[in-house]
Design brief:
Pfam families: DUF5305. 29% of the residues lie in helices and 34% in strands. The chain has 430 residues and is an alpha+beta fold. The protein folds into 3 domains: 98 residues, no CATH class; 188 residues, Immunoglobulin-like; 137 residues, no CATH class. Strands 3-10-9-8-5-6 form a 6-stranded antiparallel sheet. β9 and β10 form a beta hairpin. α1 runs antiparallel to α3. The two termini are 33 Å apart.
């Protein structure tokens, strides 16, 4: 009868046996799920390659067309006005000049004069001419539908200058006797015998710029209207804001480009490729390191699972020789032996000395010999050598007992010694 001498010996032997069992289980696990894992990893690799190609080699099959500002230049302008005081008052002495006032008095300043300044701002230019004209328009207009009942137009000034440089100003000076124009309007309405609509008094400003600006030929013309509002002995020049006469001109070029891929594609694609390649490499290394599981590996793991499952119904007890004498039947698994023992209501006994499980009923005994641990097997074909009898097993007690066994590559098969060898499944209750 074999016994372990100390607890230290038991722990020393148990650790490598547990490691061996984990190694065998890992080998079987890798073999079981290798094909599905390869399929998944190959799909990840293909998906990652496709996403990476779309993100770097060919971002998209579509292109985005955008307009980008190529050149920008500005036609500039400004209007200023004033009126001299011709009649002295308590407020303004004679000869005083009023500049850019919001309101002028017709009695003391009947004439308004001013300037229209034009030019341009650009990076470069050549042979640029600037033309300015100022006209006076007075007319009667229907305020509801814009119908013009009568219309008069007078030219006040015109100027044209050539070789004008960027930032250089061209000035057109003008003056309007508002009192005289008001009297002219009254005569027109008196001659017509009616005054339909509303009377408007307007300054019409025109600016034309021609030449080579920023390396290209340009020709632009702009027109502005400045109302002069007359009422109750006063008039106002409504010239608007200081930048009301600036006109920016922009030229665009069309640019076609593929939109940049987002971080999900630029990072996700390489990550999928790395996972796919890493997983396939790990499977290859695992297969080379652990090898393919043998039939003995699977049988031994099945036995270990059965022993763990039925440990509570197995009694560990050394058996006398007489207990194993008589007709004998061998079963293929511990589970089958346990089922038979439960069926005939007989104890399932494990003999640690002979490394055999037995169920005896009357003069008949059913036995199960556990497979040897895979690491002790001989041969590369997974079959291993078998001992000729139960008593030959030196380490089988350890393999079958409660301690973790040492893996091997073989399995015991004890030949029947009786004349008739019934199986456990063929025996009923006696």
């Amino acid at each position: 009868m074999g016994f372990r001498s100390t607890d230290t010996d038991d722990e020393t032997e148990g650790r490598p046996r547990a490691d061996a069992e984990r190694r065998v289980r890992l080998r079987v696990l890798l073999a079981t799920y290798r094909t599905p894992a390869v399929v998944v990893l190959v799909c990840l690799l293909a998906a990652g390659a496709w996403v990476s190609y779309g993100a770097y080699a060919a971002p998209t099959g579509e292109t985005e067309t955008t307009r980008q500002v190529e050149t920008t230049w500005t036609a500039t302008g400004n209007v200023s006005h004033g009126a001299p005081v011709t009649e002295p008052t308590a407020v303004y002495p004679a000869g005083t000049r009023l500049e850019n006032e919001p309101l002028y008095y017709s009695a003391v300043s009947p004439t308004v004069d001013g300037t229209f300044v034009g030019g341009y701002a650009a990076d470069s230019a050549a042979d640029v001419s600037v033309s300015l004209t100022v006209e006076l328009v007075y007319q009667s207009v229907d305020p509801d539908n814009g119908t013009v009942y009568w219309h008069e137009r007078e030219s006040l000034t015109a100027t044209n200058e050539t070789a004008v440089q960027p930032g250089e100003s061209v000035t057109a000076a003008f003056d309007v006797n508002v009192s005289a124009i008001t009297a002219r309007i009254d005569r027109i309405e008196s001659d017509l015998g009616a005054s339909p609509g509303e009377t408007e008094l307007l300054l019409v400003l025109e600016r034309e710029i021609d030449g080579t600006i920023d390396g290209a030929e340009r020709s632009v013309a702009d027109e502005y209207t400045v109302p002069i509002t007359v009422e109750d002995g006063t008039y106002r020049v409504e010239d608007g804001a200081s930048d009301a006469y600036d006109e920016p001109y922009e030229e665009y070029e069309t640019v076609s480009a593929s939109p940049a891929a987002g971080p999900v594609r630029t990072l996700g694609g390489p990550v999928l490729v790395a996972v796919g390649l890493g997983g396939l490499g790990a499977l290859a290394v695992g297969r080379r390191r652990f090898g393919e599981p043998t039939r003995c590996d699977r049988e031994w793991l099945a036995y270990r699972d059965d022993r763990e499952q039925f440990d509570e119904v197995v009694t560990v007890l050394p058996l006398p020789d007489a207990a194993l004498q008589g007709p004998r039947a061998h079963v293929d698994s511990l589970a089958a032996l346990v089922a038979y023992g439960i069926d005939v209501d007989t104890a399932i006994v494990f003999d640690p000395d002979r490394a055999v499980y037995a169920v005896r009923r009357d003069d008949f005994v059913a036995v199960f010999e556990p497979p040897r641990p895979p690491s002790t097997a001989v041969g590369d074909d997974g079959t291993g050598d078998r001992p000729g009898s139960i008593s030959e097993s030196g380490s089988e007690a350890d393999a079958a007992g409660d301690d973790d066994p040492t893996p091997s590559e073989g399995r015991n098969r004890t030949r029947s010694t009786g004349a008739d060898t019934p199986t456990a499944g063929e025996n009923g209750r006696h």
